[in-house]
Amino acid sequence: MRLYKIPVQVFVQKCDCLDTLQTFDGQVSGELIQASAGEDVRFPLSEDCRKGHGALYLHLKDGSTQIVASLAGNWKPGRAHTDRVIVSSDALILKNVDLNDQGLYEFTCEKKNTELTDLQVFVPSEVVVSEGEDATLSCRSITLGQSVKSARWRRNGELLLELNGRTREITYGRGFNESRVSVPSGWYQRANLSLTLKRAEVKDQGAYYCDIDKAEKHRSAVRLIVRVIVPKSVTTLQQPTPAPLSPECPYWTWTTFLITAAGFVIVGLLAWLIWNKMFKGSTRGAGGETSQREEGMNLRGVSNGGGLLSNSQRGGRGCRGQRTERDQQQMFMLNGFH
What we know:
By secondary structure, the chain is of the alpha+beta class. It folds into three domains: about 1-120, Immunoglobulins (Immunoglobulin-like, Sandwich); about 125-235, Immunoglobulins (Immunoglobulin-like, Sandwich), CATH 2.60.40; about 300-338, no CATH class. The chain has five helices and 20 strands. The chain has helices spanning about 185-190, 230-240, 250-305, 310-315, 320-335, and strands at about 1-10, 25-35, 40-45, 55-60, 65-70, 75, 85, 90-95, 105-110, 110-115, 115-120, 125-130, 135, 150-155, 160-165, 170, 180, 195, 205-215, 220-225. The protein is elongated, with a radius of gyration of 57 Å. It starts with a strand and ends with a helix.
């Protein structure tokens, strides 16, 4: 929202009511408020408007009037502004203004009229730059044959630059000079009164208003957005990246892998040897018992059959038994036994 003291041209129809302005066609002193659509606008309260009876009126260009708020001990919003008027200790605040809120506002309190307030609402274009870059805020309007009196750039109620259309002289606002703000030198021929803001800073953000006083008045607005550049060191701290591997890292990685693999192989071999030894020992023990058992049986067979014959040989037929005895005798004789 921007607040300025300027002459306001008004045209109001005649009416005998106390609630409307008296008939006149001329210049009166008033305030100019420039605001972007969606902003809140503040209307200061005088001492007479803080108690008693009164109203805040909106005078439209067709001559009609709307009651924005009324005072009867306490301020209350009008029908067309329900839930949009906030009352503070020293002002009425109109919330979320739009293009239909443009017009002349007037307080009438204790039957006294206050000076007019001209509210102008803009839908600003946007310009986005990075911190440190130059920003160009557009303001273009017909200048040839328009008898340009002046052109002004403002922000937050402060004058940045004012151009005298007749002398071409430029006046700079407090804290600004030609090294920070400028308009094209050929503005009159090119119909270009755009503002160049050099080395934009974060504090430069906001809505900028261009006013050209000429035969056909021109007013426009531009919203400047300045992106903050985060230093690389801060970015690194916020989002740390893994440190690069040193040349020794691959060597140590393979060495660790080989040592681990060798350890597993050694443990596996030891387990296999222990298991194999235990298995063979148990098999050998079982085989010894079997051999001893068979040897005992053979000895018994020899003692029962004369020392050389088996049980199966003795269990044959009679003739075989007889031949066997003769064979035994012959064998004894051959071995020196009689």
